[in-house]
Structures are given as structure tokens and as C-alpha cells.
């Protein structure tokens, strides 16, 4: 009732249905989906707001955000190939 009195609008979102999450895990684990290719860059925590704007504007697919006490390199290491080659991933300072 309070929402009606204050004229508040609530919006929800739907990400995936039953079984979708397990299927996604299986696709990634089997190598059929290459998630590294979806990562457009890695930024420091203080650049998170700008990163979200870029995603919303469709400029990038996915940007990893390093925690406030985590160096960008730590996140970047997660997306490197086994042989240490980068995949066109960009940091806030340009291409790694």
C-alpha cells in the first residue's frame, strides 16, 4: 500500500530460467563457449562507474573490475591464455 501512496514503481529483471545456469557452466567447462573472448577489458575499482556506462551504451561486452585492494594485473591474470599470451584484453591504460 505504501508503494501506491508514494507512487513508487518497482521493476524486476529476469536473467535466466531453471537449468540455464547449469547448462552455462557445462558449456564453459567443456570449452564449447570461450568466455575469455567476451571480456573487453579490466579496470581499477575507481573506474567501475565508467565501465558500467560503457556496457550500458553497448561499447563493450564485459569489463572485469578489480577490487579496491586488488591490482588490475590480478584480474588480468584470470583471462590470460595458458601460455601467457593476452587475448586483446585492455586495461585502463591501454592494451596489456
From TrEMBL:
Its cofactor is Zn(2+). Coiled coil: none annotated. Keywords: Metal-binding, Oxidoreductase, Zinc. GO terms for biological process: sorbitol catabolic process. One of its GO terms (molecular function) is metal ion binding. Belongs to the zinc-containing alcohol dehydrogenase family. PANTHER family: SORBITOL DEHYDROGENASE (PTHR43161). This is Putative D-xylulose reductase A. The lineage of its organism: Eukaryota, Fungi, Dikarya, Ascomycota, Pezizomycotina.
Amino acid at each position: 500500500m505504501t508503494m501506491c501512496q508514494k507512487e513508487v514503481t518497482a521493476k524486476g529483471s529476469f536473467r535466466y530460467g531453471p537449468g540455464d545456469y547449469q547448462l552455462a557452466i557445462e558449456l564453459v567447462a567443456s570449452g564449447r563457449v570461450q568466455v575469455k573472448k567476451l571480456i573487453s577489458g579490466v579496470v581499477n575499482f575507481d573506474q567501475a562507474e565508467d565501465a558500467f556506462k560503457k556496457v550500458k551504451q553497448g561499447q563493450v561486452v564485459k569489463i572485469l573490475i578489480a577490487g579496491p585492494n586488488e591490482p588490475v594485473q590480478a584480474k588480468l591474470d584470470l583471462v590470460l591464455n595458458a601460455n601467457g599470451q593476452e587475448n586483446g584484453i585492455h586495461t585502463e591504460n591501454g592494451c596489456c
